[in-house]
Design goal:
Layout lengths: L1 E4 L6 H13 L4 E2 L7 H9 L19 E5 L20 E6 L12 E4 L5 H11 L6 H14 L10 H12 L4 H7 L6 H13 L1 E5 L2 E10 L6 H12 L3 E8 L2 E8 L6 H7 L3 E2 L3 E6 L4 H15 L6 H4 L13 H11 L3 E5 L9 E6 H9 L24 H10 L4 E6 L2 E7 H8 L19 H4 L3 H7 L2 H16 L3 E5 L1 H7 L7 E6 L2 H12 L2 E5 L4 E5 L5 E6 L1 E4 L8 E4 L2 H6 L9 E3 L8 E2 L4 H6 L2 E2 L6 H4 L2 H13 L2 E2 L1 H12 L4 H4 L13 H13 L5 H9 L3 H4 L7 H18 L9 H9 L5 H10 L4 H23 L5 H8 L4 H10 L3 H12 L10 H6 L7 H14 L6 H11 L10 H4 L4
Parallel strand pairs: 1-2, 1-3, 3-4, 4-5, 7-8, 17-20, 25-26
Antiparallel strand pairs: 6-7, 8-9, 9-11, 10-11, 12-13, 14-15, 16-17, 16-23, 18-19, 19-20, 21-22, 23-24
Helix pairs in contact: 1-3, 1-4, 3-4, 4-5, 4-6, 7-8, 12-13, 18-20, 24-27, 24-28, 27-31, 30-31, 30-35, 31-35, 33-35, 34-38, 35-36
């Protein structure tokens, strides 16, 4: 039995989401977990449409096999349906828009989206899956969105809610019905309660912030108390309001906040409730109204602390220019780095110089349009703007960006520019709702963030060898001695946090990476290889261990899919350019801060959630090869590609970002020297080199990527069967523990392309810019494999020597490929026998023996020994003596002695 339910005291969002879920689960029963709000009861009583709801008493909870929860995921809010959670084999599907809280249920399938209403999620799903809704369904979904977003006035409202409402209006949603039932007008009783609540209000000034606390004692439960609190806040224009209401035997907290310094969700969480940063609630357990108020005031003093965060959230160093640069040159800089404001700084425009002014992209564009491009920017830069120190609070930043509408704030100390904060930086900070974070990360604002200040020294000592720890400390010391800062970055940090061994040591230097590498090599008596173009080096220690050194760098792309152009940068920007969040952390190696983890982008959360997520939305546009890398990491690490990242992969495929490898017109420059095909080949090679590449190949097929390599490539059941058999063949060979070099990627490449013709293979290899040595190898193996199968089909039982002759023309990779590709058991047995036994058979007689016997040196040696080998394979000879007799019979010594070369050319 399948049951769809929502939270206790259901509202319109709960009802609409239940009805919407019914369209996705037509066999499921709809049942309320408890009571409904007054307006909802009124709507159901007056509705001309009959909705089929099952009563709880008629449901055998023990028989529930699937529980579909909408607008909640808290077990304490689903009433008696919580008893189903222990049912054997129960699956849970969850649809919810609320932030994650401790104790939330985890679903087997989840649609959790940060929007203003769960009804918005279902509307999005209907649009994505082309599911139609009628006028009544559109109307009730619209009611839910209007109610949960406060008619689009709550701060939790998102653009997605407005888009959903527009779609519902197009489907016939009745706004008159919305206005009738989703009413914001107060009844006489509610007005009386509002008056009483306002009289009880007390204002607490905490850290310079006014916070209003009101309380009320009522004999019984009152519907829609949150509406009264909302009206109080609007009437008095309050920034923060916390209301406590004792109703019967329970006490309820309703919290509202308009400012980031006061996080309503954080306070409610300590009461056992939850919600958003701007709106939250809790049911207070085992406390009187007075006790609850005392705890509330204590929590406010604990959590409300404006932080000095300007220095933390600023971007540094700033991309800037000197006053003498021309407007055209400034415009090119802005376009190159995709910024909107360019600071003008003295001392050559370097960060740390004195700020002279700023100039915007709009001003530069207009100046160029009017023919002023050759003038210096100092002629048209703005000098009338405000700056902030690195100790500025969030309120200071908001006042300038929101109040003064200044989009760009230089962060200045002693006249020197340290960094900058943009409107985008502020918006990014504000949309991050701390109520979404795990409980251990909800620290007071005046203490260091756990995620950013975590020290891994103990973890390093526990999981790394002593030699590696000493090496890392030495790197940090050498950097500090030369006024550089050194960091360990990338997969090394990721795997350390996962407690996995990874000795691929990547070091990033804030400073000159090559000069540092030279000093490190001298200190450790090692060797150095440099790459001037990318400012990188490799230090090779006396024991052969390699350390990769890079200069902290900022990459920009001249056009989509181009190779990056590299410039010096800070560690934060260096990490931001990386492919995925899980690879964008660094460990400080300086003597005073050794082991400190730098996590600017909440990467630890993705590591904890086992999620692959990109750092910015244009990541795949700039470098499509990251798509293959994401798939490879997902399968190797048993992670999952994040939903947003997955959508961006699909968008990249739709945008035809692989156009330059197909030779067709697309977004890429057709003659660009990006070598995109070769880079894709390298990523594909890495995928096929994995221990089990088939899951990654399936993901490539699922994203429709194989057909972008070649339109004839398609992952269908027959090819999946071939690849599965190939995996078994590769596993079988690995278990033989042969010492012979073996390249699995060649085996899987042959299997993946086994159904392509020679012409199609040539086209594919050309598109992927595969090096000639591999092209020749792959084509030769494919042709030899096809020839072998054709021969065995005509002659199903050849002599061992004939099998040897055919199979010895194939490399080991081609043989293992045939083990998976061949369908007949006889063929597979022959291949197995050849790989494990026949190809290792040698004759006892050697070339030296032939020389001692007086045979003339030359090509005849090869023919004699080959014939002798065939005789041994066919059991015509089985010992050295037998081989010598065979020689005398078929190759009489007198005919092949030195001086008789002419006779040696004759056949025996």
């Amino acid at each position: 039995m399948e049951i769809i339910t929502t939270h206790l005291n259901a509202d319109f969002d709960g009802l609409a989401s239940m009805i919407a879920a019914g369209k996705l689960y037509p066999e499921a029963e709809l049942a309320f977990a408890g009571s409904q709000e007054k307006n909802l009861r009124k709507f159901l009583a007056n509705s001309t449409r009959v909705y089929q709801f099952q009563r709880q008493k008629n449901i055998d909870l023990a028989k529930v096999t699937r529980l579909i929860l909408v607008d909640t995921r808290q077990p304490g809010r689903i009433g008696n349906f919580a008893k189903c959670l222990d049912n054997p084999g129960l699956t849970i599907h969850i649809y919810d828009h609320h932030p994650e809280l401790p104790g939330d249920l985890k679903g087997d399938y989840e649609e959790i989206r940060p929007v203003g209403s769960t009804a918005t999620i279902f509307t999005q799903l209907f649009r994505e899956r082309n599911i139609e809704v009628d006028r009544d369904e559109a109307t009730i979904l619209a009611m839910a969105i209007y109610e949960d977003t406060g008619s689009f006035t709550f701060s939790t409202t998102t653009p997605a809610d407005l888009e959903a409402m527009a779609w519902l209006l197009a489907k016939g949603a009745n706004l008159h019905a919305v206005a009738q039932f989703v009413s914001q007008e107060l009844t006489g009783q509610q007005v009386s309660l509002l008056n009483e609540l306002m009289r009880s209000a007390v204002t607490y000034t905490i850290e310079g912030i006014d916070i209003v606390v009101a309380k009320i004692n009522l004999p019984e439960y009152v519907d829609e108390f949150a509406l009264i609190v909302r009206r109080f806040m609007v009437m008095e224009n309050l920034n923060c309001l916390f209301s406590l209401a004792a109703m019967g035997e329970k006490t309820y907290l309703i919290a509202r906040s308009r400012i980031p310094e006061v996080n309503a969700g954080e306070i409610a969480l300590d009461f056992g409730g939850g919600g958003h940063a701007s709106a939250a609630s809790a049911t207070v357990q085992d406390m009187t109204l007075i006790e609850a108020e005392e705890k509330l005031v204590h929590l406010l003093h604990k959590h409300v602390r404006p932080a000095s965060i300007a220095g933390e959230i600023m971007s540094a160093p700033v991309i800037s220019a000197p006053p003498e640069i021309t407007i055209k040159e400034a415009s090119r800089i802005i376009d190159r780095y995709n910024i909107t404001v360019l600071p003008i700084i003295s001392e050559g425009g370097k960060a740390g110089g004195e700020l002279k002014g700023v100039i915007s992209q709009r001003v530069l564009g207009k100046a160029v349009y009017h023919g002023l491009g050759d003038l210096p920017v100092s002629e048209y830069m703005t000098t009338d703007f405000a700056v902030l120190p690195p100790t500025a609070t969030l309120a200071d930043i908001q006042e300038l960006i929101i109040g003064n509408r200044q989009r760009f704030i230089p962060i200045v100390k002693k006249g020197k520019v340290l960094g900058a904060i943009t409107r985008t930086d502020l918006l990014s900070l504000l949309v991050k709702d701390p109520a979404h974070l795990p409980r251990h990360m909800l620290e007071p604002l005046n203490t260091p963030s756990v995620a950013r200040q975590r020290n891994l020294k103990t973890l390093m000592i526990e999981n790394l060898s002593r030699d590696i720890v000493v090496l890392l400390k030495t790197i940090g010391e050498v950097a500090a001695e030369n006024d550089y800062t050194a960091y360990a970055v990338g997969g090394f940090v990721r795997d350390l946090l996962l407690r996995k061994v990874n000795l691929d040591l990547d070091i990033v230097i804030e400073g000159d990476g090559i000069k540092f590498a030279e000093k490190l090599a001298k200190k450790l008596k090692g060797q150095i290889r440099t790459h001037e173009k990318f400012n990188t080096a490799v230090v090779i220690l006396p024991n052969g261990f390699k350390v990769d050194i890079a200069t902290a760098r900022l990459e920009y792309y001249e056009y989509p899919a181009a190779m990056p152009t590299v410039e010096l940068s800070s560690i934060k920007l260096d990490l931001y350019r990386r492919d995925f969040t899980i690879n964008a952390m660094a460990i400080h190696l300086g003597p005073e801060t050794f082991g400190t983890l730098l996590d600017f982008f909440n990467c630890q959360n993705d590591l904890k959630d086992r999620r692959i997520r990109i750092l910015h939305n244009l990541s795949f546009v700039e470098d499509p090869t990251r798509i293959l890398r994401a798939i490879r990491l997902e399968q190797r690490m048993r992670f999952a590609i994040g939903k947003h990242t997955e959508r961006l992969i699909k968008n990249a495929v739709k945008m035809n970002l692989f156009a330059s490898i197909t030779g067709t017109a697309g977004i890429l420059k057709p003659n660009s020297r990006t070598r995109l095909g070769f880079r894709i080949f390298n990523e594909l090679k890495l995928i096929l080199s994995e221990q089990e590449p088939l899951p990654a190949i399936k993901r490539l097929g699922g994203f429709q990527l194989l057909k972008l390599f070649h339109q004839a490539m398609k992952l269908d059941p027959p090819l999946e069967e071939i690849l599965t058999d190939t995996q078994q063949a590769v596993d079988w060979y690995r278990l033989l523990y042969q010492e012979e070099p073996f390249r699995p990627w060649i085996v899987f490449m042959l299997a993946l392309t086994c159904r392509l013709t020679s012409r199609q293979l040539n086209t594919l290899y050309r598109r992927l810019e595969i090096p000639d040595r591999y092209v020749d190898l792959l084509l030769a193996e494919k042709n030899q494999a096809d020839r072998l199968l054709r021969t065995l089909k005509k002659h199903p039982a050849p002599k061992p020597s004939e099998t040897y002759r055919l199979m010895s023309r194939l490399r080991l990779e081609g043989l293992v490929f045939l083990m998976g590709y061949a369908k007949k058991d006889e063929t597979r047995k022959a291949l197995s026998n050849f790989i494990t036994y026949q190809r290792h058979v040698k004759t006892s007689v050697t070339g030296s023996d032939l020389k001692e016997l007086g045979y003339a040196e030359g090509p005849i040696y090869g023919r004699i020994l080959e014939r002798l080998l065939y005789a041994r394979l066919d059991n015509e000879v089985d010992s050295r003596e037998a081989e010598l007799i065979f020689l005398k019979r078929h190759y009489p010594p007198g005919r092949y002695r030195t001086g008789a070369r002419l006779q040696a050319r004759k056949k025996p």
